[in-house]
Specification:
By secondary structure, the chain is an alpha+beta fold. It contains three helices and four strands; from the N terminus they run H-E-E-H-E-E-H. Helices cover 37% and strands 21% of the residues.
Length: 143
């Protein structure tokens, strides 16, 4: 969802992420860091004239966070202890501008309301926007 696949031709790009030190949220950390690695790979492909255009073919920056409800509190970026105690656990992957790539939410006990879901999405979006700001700083010389 983040890449214009028509621009890379008949190629497969594999991003393999190892989170060396994690305390919950390793999947979302891998997605956020993996996007940076993907842009760097596309930059190299562009420099080697392997892309159909001179632009790096992304649809926007992409990042992911975990959010959840722990002890009736809505939290961003749950650590391991919070994750195992969470009554609701949700992972959100978004492109900049609030476009969703993936939303996965699980109630581990009681169901949760539409209002709680919306608040968690808003919390996730705020966290993702901050991560995208960091990505933009890291990739400022490429994009």
């Amino acid at each position: 969802a983040a890449v214009d696949l028509s621009a890379i031709g008949e190629r497969t790009i594999i991003i393999d992420c190892d989170v060396l030190q994690g305390d919950g949220g390793t999947r979302t950390a891998a997605i956020t860091g993996g996007f940076v690695a993907l842009v760097e790979a596309l930059h190299k492909m562009r420099d080697e004239n392997l892309l159909s255009s001179k632009a790096i073919p992304i649809h926007g920056y992409l990042a992911a966070v975990s959010v959840g409800i722990v002890d009736r509190r809505e939290l961003l970026d749950l650590n391991y202890e919070e994750d195992v105690r969470a009554s609701v656990d949700m992972n959100v992957v978004m492109l900049e501008g609030g476009r969703f790539v993936e939303v996965q939410a699980t109630a581990k006990g009681q169901p949760f309301s539409q209002e709680q879901f919306t608040r968690l999405l808003n919390l996730a979006r705020a966290g993702i926007e901050k991560l995208i700001e960091v990505q933009k700083q890291v990739l400022k010389d490429i994009l």
